[in-house]
Fold this protein.
Amino acid sequence: MISRNTILLSSLALTLLAACSPESGQTSQTRYADLVLRDGAIYTVDAKRTWQEAVAIRDGEIVYVGSNQGVNEFAGPDTQVVDLKGRLVLPGLQDAHIHPISGGVEASACNLNGMTTADQYLATIKAYAEANPDLPWITGGGWLMSAFGPGAMPRKELIDQIVPDRPVLLYSSDGHSAWANSKALELAGITRDTPDPADGRIDRHPDTGELVGSLQEGAGSLLNHVVPPTSDTQLRDGLRYSIKMLNAYGITSIQDANVNDRDLQAYQALDESGELTLRVEGSQWWSRDQGVEQLAAMADRRKKYGKGHVRANTVKIMQDGVMENYTAVMLEPYLMDGDVRGIPMFDPQALKDAVTAADAQGFQVHFHAIGDGAIRQSLDAIEAARKVNGPNDHRHHLSHIQLIDPQDIPRFAELDAIANFQPLWAFADEYIKDLTIPFIGEERTRWMYPINSVLQSGGMIAFGSDWSVSTANPYTEMEVAVTRMNPEDDTDSVFIPEERISLDEAIAAFTINAAYTNHLDTQTGSIETGKLADMVVLDQNLFEIPPSKISDTRALVTLFEGKTVHGDLSAL
């Protein structure tokens, strides 16, 4: 029973709090803000999805969110006051699946991103080789599978004609296929008699058995022992490139989908020098040639990289490949000769054992799962961990999830598993029309990227870009989530219209939901008092324009802990 004295003490405490609160009318020098933003359209993404006019920031934190009138008492003689002139402000955006270091390194190598034809690739390779005559290897990537037809098998002879004397190794934009010339295959000791690895495929001519020059999934790693390693300087320069790009989009937090010791060292080095204007959750790669014993090293990294803006609390498990090269794991066979169902990277029981062990040690598990078979195996593994370890707050999530069997859609909510979609892929481009639908059929196509179905079943969705596989531009990704159409051509038909979502839901997936995925939701993801001042000011109000114009949006200013890391507040 609550006593009368307890009630009186509680009332007294509330009175004292009210007297000290910003709305009490009392002001003091210690309560003045460093920065006040006023006259804005501030979409807070709080629990009630409220709109406000003004924000006050002190020491990197939000100390007030509310009306223009209420913010006035936070403006002292040294406070910077900025008139937003009605512009839209969102919480700093978060990318829940991205590859900043490898993407940044690739941008300075033989970069094929943004091109679409084999002729363009060959011209770029030739120009890069001529401009870098002293490089012992030509490396890079970014080529599209769609440029080479079903199966994604570019021929080695295409490169041999322009670079015959040096080894060349170039990865596809999604990283699941490699394209090598004859010199590279020779140096690696790969011949027509080399057996396929368990997790990949060496492409061979169906009639002669000769090497084609393309290697799928784990087969690309057969060249690792001869390819020169990336230097620490290259890693850090690549990361600097990505930080600048991401801040320019309004992105202030990420989950790096594949990190090792050297990647984490690069993040830590830039954090210590003050250059890391991103909050980073690193997904530690689960090696397929090791078992649960690797968790000891992962726990050591988690402890070592558990300060500043860098964390490594996540384990990344890749369970399958991709549909375009028939390595995504399917419940039913692909529509082609033979019983082709993809390549499971882990036996389902081994996957359950790995996830249960990682879960028991407090790790979040981040799955790569594209086919409906891999998705079911991943959900089964989470379910197995729940049965052994009980419920917890580790927030396991499945990325990509291109094709979900409808029976598995409700399981995301049932298992508290987050559906981490890359929404840019949810329209009918060449990958879907030419390389996927013909090999899975119309019936299964209905369940490609079922974002709305997961939402309606009570599941949480978060968004990521998977850059450099595709653009890191979150506004383009939001547009596709809302329209399910080509963002560069709004005359296309809508791809599975019932899976469109609202703009509010798309923004949440890039803010508070991604923050939840990154275990940052108590600090970021919404504009609320007490949270860190990560925000972005946009050049147009997403809620006042046609959905087809969302991709035209530009970030004018990005704040990270109240500091400008992109743009100029005084220019607003």
About this structure: The longest strand covers residues 251-259. The chain has a mean pLDDT of 93. The chain is about 30% helix and 20% strand. The longest helix spans residues 232-249.
